[in-house]
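[#protein-structures] MJ: dropping Tripartite tricarboxylate transporter substrate binding protein here for a structure pass
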Amino acid sequence: MPAIAPLLPKRQALAWLAAACTAVAGSGPASAGETDGAYPERTVTLVVPFTPGTSADIIARVIGPRLAERWKVAVVTENRPGAGGNIGAELVARAAPDGYTLLMTATAFGTTPVINRHTPFDPIKSFRPIGLAATSAMALVAPGKLPAQSVQDLIQLARAQPGKLNYASPGTGTAQHLAMELLKQSAQLDMVHIPYKGTAGALTDIMGGHAQAMVTSLGAATPFLQSGQLKALAVMSKNRVPELPGTSTVVEQGHPELVVDTWYGLLAPANTPDAIIGKWNKDLNALLRDPDVIASLKNQGLVATGGTPQELGALIQSELARWAKVVAAAKIAAD
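AK: finished. structure tokens for Tripartite tricarboxylate transporter substrate binding protein:
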């Protein structure tokens, strides 16, 4: 069994948050007027720290060729999966800050560092944010036969049977795991976590009644929701989603503290010049307004987002702070 990493020390968590405030405040505007006309002159690599076919990979492969067409240089996607995204992130953190090696990451970037103190980079100091590329919704699901139709119904079932209800996740420390822990802590529930090695096994056991709840992506759950093997108790976003128009959100159900979206963002190594950050932000946002890009991402259950470097920096800061509290309260450690 792999060694279990100790919990993130409180002093280190506070140091990260202080550094985040400084980094976000000092990142400066992404001014389109300050771009370096010579950039880019050669191949640009988008490092995806996950396997091919994942959402971050899809986003990189949607925007890469379009940027290549604009810039007249190759923009390639390189998958460097492993260690919850740490392998690819470390590669970019150690890359030259010249705009030719960038990171297309996801929600795990805001969760892995607060679970494993041995993360080989600092999520704030080692990077400069460029922009939020996309988001995707998740849902709280349950077996089709479970006598619950809402978050409150599940809470009542769990309170009536403390320690008897199980919830599944695709692995310890994943966003889905932490979202369920957030529900447990918010409602003061006693439920048992059953981690799986991936989403497929977790959903199979949910449908078989071996676990009673799970937070999962809509893309993974939709076929089973349509067949009735699963039911959606709530969408974990602020707004309803087209895929489940009849399912209310956690906000509508009176639980705004449970809003959890999956996000995907683009980062550069620390010390990357403002001009390069500005050019990337300008062109990324332009692509994310393109109808073809919007449609391509929508077909994968993704919402093209965009925004400023400061907004992505603030999101990462808030994610680290939020999940550090959840992890500490639940005493979660890496597998």
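MJ: nice. The chain has two domains: 10-136+261-330, 138-258.
AK: one more thing. The longest helix spans residues 309-330.
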